[in-house]
Specification:
The structure is a single chain. The protein is of the alpha+beta class. The chain contains ten helices and 15 strands. It has helices at about 1-20, 25, 30-40, 50-70, 90-105, 170, 245-250, 270-280, 300-315, 345-355, and strands spanning about 80, 90, 110-115, 120-125, 130-140, 150-160, 180-185, 190-195, 205-210, 215-220, 230, 265, 285, 315-320, 340. The strands form three sheets. Strands 4-3-5-6-7-8-9-10 form an eight-stranded mixed β-sheet, with helices on both faces. Strands 12-11-13-15-14 form a five-stranded mixed β-sheet, with helices on both faces. The chain has a two-stranded antiparallel ribbon with strand order 1-2. α7 crosses α10 (about 345-355). The protein is globular, with a radius of gyration of 22 Å. Bound molecules: 1,6-di-O-phosphono-beta-D-fructofuranose (FBP). 1,6-di-O-phosphono-beta-D-fructofuranose binds near residues 116, 137, 142, 269 and 271.
Length: about 350
């Protein structure tokens, strides 16, 4: 009898184990579950924001699939069009833009979108409940598309007030501190989605498992180290940099002092990849003004603001050298800004050079 009883207990445990997912997947919960649980803690939640986050996850999965076989899927090369930035549009830029617009239009939570690839914001839903605006760079790092180097998608989410009637581009010109969410996807050695739903909500990383078709939580509560050992800037622009940037750059390469100088240099040429490395490992990523980019190169609304939001939510810093990026009041949808994001101590040192304190 006792033996029978212990077999029964053993049976239950085995049965219990059988239904328990394998350890590696147990480690990470899915993106959907994570945002759903986040919603449960919000009493006033309508589910719209959660649905929007999951839609963005879906769009990234679709884009990731195309990136992974871009060379085979005739997704390399140009469309023949030129975008509002005066850049030749790459097929993958257009594909990713269309995927994001189509996916975000579907459920009616997204009132409008603004994209690097579209001259004007697009009204995606007239539904009364549509309160969110998504600002995105569908493919960041376009110069790396046809060489298989990491590229990404960057997005920021604004919530609009109903009272303001017809949605206008002006309503999108809000300082980054008003974002209610931001994130990016990196299409690198794996596809990762890094997300934050508030400056006090932390930053979380999800890794895509193509064999399951799901994003799993793999980097919970990411924190940007207080100081790093690498700096990231396009050294090829040295001759065009303003004097303070040159002086900072020279200082970073000189041994000595409390910091880890000389710092190592890293530069992928995709802001999303250079920022991702800096967020995880610390250090600083900078794209300053220069003679060719007098206002900087990165776009404030859908590149600099989301990146600065994520760095601040992860305990780091985002600045244009003198101002907090998130406090800049935009004057146009495609305006550019100089940017430095990274570890507090490294960005602080950079700002001291920019402000003439060093
Ligand atoms: P897009 O690719 O979205 O146009 O972004 C601009 C960008 O590619 C950034 O990702 C990157 O940091 C920067 O330009 C690289 O510029 P450069 O080739 O001048 O270093």
């Amino acid at each position: 009898m006792a033996a029978a009883a212990s077999i029964a207990v053993l049976g239950d445990e085995l049965m219990a184990d059988a239904t328990k997912p394998p350890p590696d997947i147990q480690k990470g919960i899915t993106l959907e579950t994570f945002v759903l649980e986040g919603m449960r803690s919000e009493t006033a939640a309508t589910g719209a924001f959660t649905s929007l986050l999951n839609q963005l996850g879906t769009a990234v999965k679709i884009i990731s699939a195309r990136v992974r076989n871009a060379g085979l899927a005739d997704a390399i090369g140009y469309t023949g069009e030129t975008n509002v930035q005066g850049e030749r549009v790459q097929k993958l830029d257009q594909y990713a833009n269309d995927v994001l617009v189509n996916v975000l239009e579907r459920r009616g939570h997204c009132r409008a979108v603004a994209s690097e690839e579209m001259a004007e914001p697009l009204l995606t839903s007239r539904a009364a409940g549509a309160r969110y605006v998504v600002l995105f760079d569908p493919i960041d790092g376009s110069s790396n598309i046809d060489v298989g180097v990491s590229i990404g998608t960057i997005f920021g989410i604004l919530r609009l007030d109903h009272e303001r009637g017809q949605t206008t581009a002006e309503q999108l010109l809000r300082p980054g501190r008003e974002l209610v969410g931001a994130g990016y996807a990196v299409y690198g050695s794996s596809t990762m989605l890094v997300l934050s739903t508030g400056l006090d909500e932390g930053v979380h990383g999800f890794t895509f498992d193509p064999s399951v078709g799901e994003f799993f939580l793999s980097h919970e509560n990411l924190r940007c180290p207080e100081q790093g050992t690498t700096y990231s800037i396009n050294e090829g622009n040295h001759a065009y940099w303003p004097e303070p940037v040159r002086r900072w750059n020279t200082w970073m390469k000189q041994p000595g002092g409390a910091a880890a100088r000389p710092y190592g240099q890293r530069y992928v040429g995709s802001a999303v990849a250079d920022a991702h490395r800096t967020l995880l490992k610390g250090g600083i990523f900078v794209y300053p003004t220069d003679d060719q980019n007098p206002n900087g190169k990165l776009r404030l609304l859908y590149e600099a603001n989301p990146l600065a939001f994520l760095f601040e939510a992860a305990g780091g810093t985002g600045t244009d050298g003198t101002r907090r990026i998130l406090d800049i009041v935009p004057s146009s949808v495609h305006e550019r800004t100089p940017i430095a994001v990274g570890s507090n101590r490294d960005v602080e040192a950079y700002c001291e050079f920019m402000q003439g304190k060093r």
